[in-house]
Each structure stands twice: as structure tokens, then as C-alpha cells.
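R.M. (postdoc): so does anyone remember the format we settled on? I'll just put the C-alpha cells first.
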């Protein structure tokens, strides 16, 4: 066992934090596979370069959020390349399920689209709040002051509510 493993019980930290981290990342990305990869990468980095402070949970969420952000940037570059060559784009659609599954998928799509219209910082503070983080942990993860987190959350909630509010066209 290395010194860093002696200082941090990685197995215990994994058991304590993986489920919440994974759930947060699925909500952040809308992609279970990407969420699992980012969560795994955060724990790999924990073993390789453990944080010096005692806020391991906030550190894991911040690292995983950065992994997702970096992956999103790489995917955007990849999609730009694909758009230059549409014949290389992936093909195929998922099969249709029962009506309930379709309705549920549509609701998830609407919420995912509304979350995607929020900034990274807005989305991160909302989803970390949903996972039960304290304001000081959220502040550490997004690089702001503890005092501004409440305001950021309130503004992000208002913006999300506005994005999800039914429009006159959707009521027809």
C-alpha cells in the first residue's frame, strides 16, 4: 500500500461517493456511459494525485466535471470533423419501445435540452445541490465564493423554470 493509499482509503471513498458522483454525472451529461467513464477517471486521478485538503467529495465532483467538459470539447471537435464528411457519420436509431417509454423519453429529452441551455456553471451548481453538496463545496468546485452560491442556484433555478415553462405553441 502506497503512502497516498494509507492517507486515503480509496475503497471506502469509492463506496461512499461513487453512486452520488455517477448520478450527478448522468444528470449533467445525459449519457450513462460517459458518466461512468468520467466517474472512473476521477477515482483514477484520486489514486494518482490525491487532493491535499480534506474535501475529497468536492474534489471528485470537480475533477469529474472537468473530465466531462474536456470530453464534450473533444466530441464537439469530432462532430465538426464529421460534418465535413457526412458519409462517415454513425448510422442507426434506437428501436421504439412502448408508449410509456416513449413519453418518458420525451420528458427526459425536454429536461435534458433545458439543462443544456444552462451554462456549465449553472448546470453544475444545480446538479451538485441536488446531490446534497454544501455551498462551500459547490463554491470550491466551480471556483466562486460561498456567499455567491445561493444566488447562483436561485438564478439557475429561475432560468431552468423558464426553459421548462410551457409555451403557447406547446399548449395547442
Amino acid at each position: 500500500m502506497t503512502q497516498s493509499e494509507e492517507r486515503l482509503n480509496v475503497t471506502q471513498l469509492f463506496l461512499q461517493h461513487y453512486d452520488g458522483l455517477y448520478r450527478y454525472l448522468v444528470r449533467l451529461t445525459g449519457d450513462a456511459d460517459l458518466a461512468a467513464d468520467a466517474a472512473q477517471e476521477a477515482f483514477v486521478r484520486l489514486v494518482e494525485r490525491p487532493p491535499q485538503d480534506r474535501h475529497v467529495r468536492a474534489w471528485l465532483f470537480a475533477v469529474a466535471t472537468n473530465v466531462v467538459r474536456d470530453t464534450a470539447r473533444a466530441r464537439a471537435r469530432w462532430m465538426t470533423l464529421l460534418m465535413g464528411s457526412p458519409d462517415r457519420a454513425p448510422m442507426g436509431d434506437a428501436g421504439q419501445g412502448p408508449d410509456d417509454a416513449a413519453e418518458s423519453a420525451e420528458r427526459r429529452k425536454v429536461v435534458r435540452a433545458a439543462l443544456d441551455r444552462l451554462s456549465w456553471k449553472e448546470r453544475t451548481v444545480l446538479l451538485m445541490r441536488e446531490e446534497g453538496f454544501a455551498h462551500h463545496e459547490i463554491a470550491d468546485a466551480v471556483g466562486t465564493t460561498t456567499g455567491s452560491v445561493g444566488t447562483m442556484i436561485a438564478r439557475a433555478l429561475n432560468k431552468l423554470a423558464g426553459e421548462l415553462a410551457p409555451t403557447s405553441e406547446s399548449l395547442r
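R.M.: ...and that's the designed sequence above, right after the C-alpha cells. Also worth knowing: The chain has eight helices and no strands. The first helix runs from residue 3 to 7.
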